[in-house]
tRNA threonylcarbamoyladenosine biosynthesis protein TsaB
Amino acid sequence: MLLLSLDTSTTVCSAALHQDGTLLGCYELFTERTSSAMLTTLINEVVQHTGHELNQLDAIAVGKGPGSYTGLRIGVSTAKGLCFALDKPLLSVNTLAAMAEQIRAFYPASYTLCPMIDARRMEVYCAFYSAADGRELHPTAAEIINEQSFGSWLADGPVVFFGDGAAKCRAVLGEHPNALFLDKLVTPSARTVGVLAGQAFTEGRVEDVATFEPFYLKEFMAVKPKAVAF
């Protein structure tokens, strides 16, 4: 199976190619603004530089969110366009689950992993996963961080908080003995989107290309421009 995976959930734009579960290549672009042109370039680079062509793909996978509204629309629209053009199945992976997969092997099975994506102010998108097998322990939610946040989880044992939303949590819960924080920033990546998507492909968990939408978690809130006095 040749699988192309994409992730544009945050300001990091990435494309990866896996063959039968083995990573062949991954291109990541760390910018303040993701664009469809950037993603298309990364797709072409990773496919061509690994010696393949788009028509050889067996499926396309995308990080479905949560994350940036604009970023998610770019990633999902691009993935759906490729699926339509190439007549290939679409796979989707929760962005937070893919983040947890990046670090899962480095922690004891008894630990709980909590990836976080910044959602502005003191709010984060987060979920809880088992370090043992990546199993989701609590579904994705938008949480406002305060001194009482995640008390029951921390009472049960060590929790690893990471991602670009974890700094907010560290400022509030950093003194708790069971609250662990990574010094290195973990960002969403097509590398682990591809790992989880490969499992989904094997199990036949594909999306309806025509109706699939990103997992926004919250409705898009446009900022009303302020009137300027002259």
Residues 69-86 form the longest helix (18 residues). DSSP finds six helices and ten strands in the chain.
